[in-house]
Amino acid sequence: MxxxxxxxNFFASDPILILQGSVPVPDIDFxxxxxxxxxxxxxxxxxxAEMKIxxxxxGEEIYRSLLDELMSGALPGGSRLCEEKICKQLGVSRTxxxxxxxxxxxxxxxxxxxxxxxxVRKMSPDSLAELFEARxxxxxxxxxxxxxxxxxxxxxxxxxxxxxxKRKGSREDTLRADERMHELITEACKNSCLxxxxxxxxxxxxxxxxxxxxxxxxxxxxVAERLRIIDAILAGDSGKAEEGMKEHFQCGIKHxxxxxxxxx
Length: 264
Description:
Blueprint: H1 3-12, H2 15-20, H3 28-39, H4 58-72, E1 80-81, H5 83-90, H6 94-106, E2 110-112, E3 118-120, H7 125-145, H8 152-168, H9 171-187, H10 192-215, H11 219-234, H12 238-263
Antiparallel strand pairs: 1-3, 2-3
């Protein structure tokens, strides 16, 4: 049964026909995905695709725990994830675990098997480096071509938020500010096709960014790295801003390449 077809018939049909078995009922994975989508409706991206970090729930903790396992090499590419085994290891129920798994599936970290269950998508250090390199090239292009369209007032507020994050030593606030910085640059794109491609790459990169922020990155160093870009934008220096952005991505690429090589 194809979940999408079953789901369409299911929600459009008379309840009596469903009880009689005339209409196929979607499988539990499809129903759970619908419920999860509705539950997180308010946190999904709006028409400007501003990405906001979700408050730390049990599902978020499981998500980060699985990311740590993936980045350390404990769950190498091709590994099959057994829900029952993970639930026992982490001492959690299937509901928050599935919340984390659906998120990882959506972000391309996991792949769904035709026979059921999930496997870890194979990602070599070079492949991950190329992913961030492609994103960096497009964001630098957007920064250079649409520099005069960047929201300066937004950048001023962002600088304040970064300094507050540094003062508090908050990793979550640092990550949130980082995502907002990249989004402000993407929002400046007059070319909607370019903006769409950048946002797609941002989504694919996001789980690795979360791992780096919470497991490796020093808050003070992270803030300083981003302030170099923001200060250049506020000073009207597009060349220096682009140089800072390139350095920002190069630091990330080096981190992920080294991390995956150690894990493997």
